[in-house]
């Protein structure tokens, strides 16, 4: 599967039970600079709930990428983005303990397994 980095990715509804561990799948391997654990990343992303397939967030919807230190993001991103190279598109499936914690944790997405498709646009 290839992608056009100028278009929002489509996420197909998953089948089967949600995974208990972080799943990392490269859709496209980039050939630019590599993201490291201490990097600040510039990304475009879309996030959907695993069970419902409902989109809950998307930088595409806001019309601009985001720039964040990896250390400030949920643990699944902290573990799933390092090693990714600029120009790549990667799918991360985050179980609740790597996203927003167990159900009742106070965040609307607590207790939910989340799927993100991330385009790495830059690292610093």
Automatic annotation (TrEMBL):
Domain PPIase FKBP-type, chain residue ranges per copy: 38-124
List the residue ranges of the region (Disordered). 1-20
The answer to whether keyword Isomerase applies is: yes
Question: Mind listing the UniProt keywords for this protein, alphabetically?
Answer: Isomerase, Rotamase
Q: One Pfam family name from the record?
A: FKBP_C
Bias (Basic and acidic residues) occurs at: 1-11
Q: What is its EC number?
A: 5.2.1.8
Q: Which Gene3D superfamilies match?
A: 3.10.50.40
For whether the record's keyword set contains Transferase, the answer is no
Matching InterPro entries, A to Z? Answer: PPIase_dom_sf, PPIase_FKBP_dom
**Which reaction(s) does its UniProt entry say it catalyses?**
[protein]-peptidylproline (omega=180) = [protein]-peptidylproline (omega=0)
User: A Gene Ontology molecular-function term?
Assistant: isomerase activity
Identify its protein family: Belongs to the FKBP-type PPIase family.
Protein name per the record: Peptidyl-prolyl cis-trans isomerase
Query: Which organism was this protein described from?
Result: Frondihabitans sucicola
């Amino acid at each position: 599967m290839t992608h056009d980095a100028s278009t929002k990715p489509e996420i197909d509804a998953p089948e089967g039970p949600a995974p208990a561990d972080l799943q990392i799948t490269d859709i496209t391997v980039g050939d630019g600079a590599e993201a490291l654990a201490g990097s600040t990343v510039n990304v475009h992303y879309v996030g959907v709930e695993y069970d419902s397939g409902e989109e809950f967030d998307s930088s595409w919807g806001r019309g601009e990428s985001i720039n964040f230190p990896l250390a400030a993001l949920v643990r699944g991103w902290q573990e799933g983005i390092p090693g990714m190279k600029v120009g790549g598109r990667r799918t991360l499936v985050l179980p609740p303990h790597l996203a927003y914690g167990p159900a009742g944790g106070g965040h609307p997405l607590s207790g939910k397994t989340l799927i993100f498709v991330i385009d790495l646009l830059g690292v610093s």
